[in-house]
Amino acid sequence: MSETDSYWVTLVEKIVGIILIIISGLMLYYTATTTALGTYNTMFGVLGAVVLIVGIFLLIVRPPE
């Protein structure tokens, strides 16, 4: 793999991580503010937290070179 390929892979990984963090923030916000979910409120909260952890993981970890 060339040097430029590694750069683009790292850039896309960071962008996907940021998008996942934004999506999880929206999930957690709407889970906390709405009552329409009823009994599934906890499930969506946990899913939002899992997506947040994956997004942070993608921002922190570096791909192998």
Label this structure with key terms.
65 residues; mainly alpha
Describe it for me?
- The chain has 2 helices and no strands.
- The mean pLDDT is 87.
- The protein has helices at residues 3-33, 41-60.
- Helix content is 78%, strand content 0%.
- The protein is an all-alpha fold.
Strand content: under 5%
pLDDT averaged over residues: 87
Helix and strand succession?
Answer: HH
Compute the number of helices. 2
Terminus-to-terminus distance: 9 Å
Q: Based on CA inertia axes, which overall geometry fits? A: elongated
Structural class: mainly alpha
- Uncertain runs are none
Give a brief description.
Helix 1 packs antiparallel against helix 2.
What topology emerges from the helices and strands here?
Layout lengths: L2 H31 L7 H20 L5
Helix pairs in contact: 1-2
